[in-house]
Amino acid sequence: MSQAPFAAPLTPPDRAAQALAGAGHAVLDPAGFATLIDSELRELEVLRPFWDDLRPDTYLRDGGHYRRRRHSCFIVEQGRIEQVPHRAHWQPIEYNALHGGLERWFEPIAPAVVAAPAWQRTLQAMGALASSLRGSAGPWYLEAHQFRIDTTDGIGRPTPEGAHRDGVDLVAVVLIGREGIKGGETRVFDADGPTGLRFTMQSPWTCLLLDDARVIHESTPIQPLEAYGHRDTLVLTLRAGGFQGPTAT
């Protein structure tokens, strides 16, 4: 008999900032996430089909072919959003031992996604949370990643680098959907201690929020329940002071 997935410990949206400041993490159910970003679920659902048009990630150093993605960068400050010229995604080796130190160029996020009201409100809400968490108005340098992890190789790895931090201030992981898979358990641990939690995000628009300075996180591999399965997420990272790069900008 297969083990039932662990349920996420949910946080009311009006307590998300308090939970981040206290525990370093918060999980919102779909209704809570929609409330946080001042949108309706039907507005968010408009975005889901765009995850069917992601491009293969050709940088996987484990030789896999299980990840597709798009990536764009923005500056968010006091509710204002500016998309910056397309740039590479870069992380230092100390935060990503597998892909750190490598400039990775991915196809940008589609203009129709960026223009969607729910997308704009999501970025504004994340900027407000980062400001609350750090006591600063910004600007916040936000990187947005659309991910699809699939079972093309028989197994898909959402975090091939293992448990990690991202070297930013705030991380949001939003489940877009999962089909025909098992696994994909989310794990969050205190960066300086053994305390942690584990759960499986099941419903589209469930959102995990992380104070990246205080916790590390990972997602376990996925396996197919059918001939093919996949797990789609939106990952947003916000950082003060500039985008990560060989020279921060």
What's the structural blueprint in terms of helices and strands?
Blueprint: H1 16-22, E1 25-28, H2 30-36, H3 41-45, E2 55-56, E3 67-77, E4 80-83, H4 111-115, H5 117-134, E5 140-150, E6 170-179, E7 181-183, E8 186-190, E9 196-199, E10 207-211, E11 215-219, E12 222-224, E13 230-240
Antiparallel strand pairs: 1-10, 2-3, 3-4, 3-5, 5-13, 6-10, 6-13, 7-12, 8-9, 8-11
Question: Percent of residues in helical segments?
Answer: 10-25%
Structural class: alpha+beta
What spatial form do the alpha-carbon principal axes imply?
globular
Q: Which band does the percent of strand residues land in? A: 25-35%
The total number of structural domains is: 1
CATH architecture: Sandwich
CATH level-1 class: Mainly Beta
Give average pLDDT, whole number: 91
Tally of helical segments: 5
Q: How far is the first residue's CA from the last residue's CA?
A: 51 Å
Largest sheet: 8 strands, antiparallel
According to CATH, the homologous superfamily is: q2cbj1_9rhob like domain
Number of strands: 13
Could you give the order of the helices and strands?
HEHHEEEHHEEEEEEEEE
Low-confidence stretches: none
Cα radius of gyration in angstroms: 17 Å
User: In CATH terms, what is the fold-level topology?
Assistant: Jelly Rolls
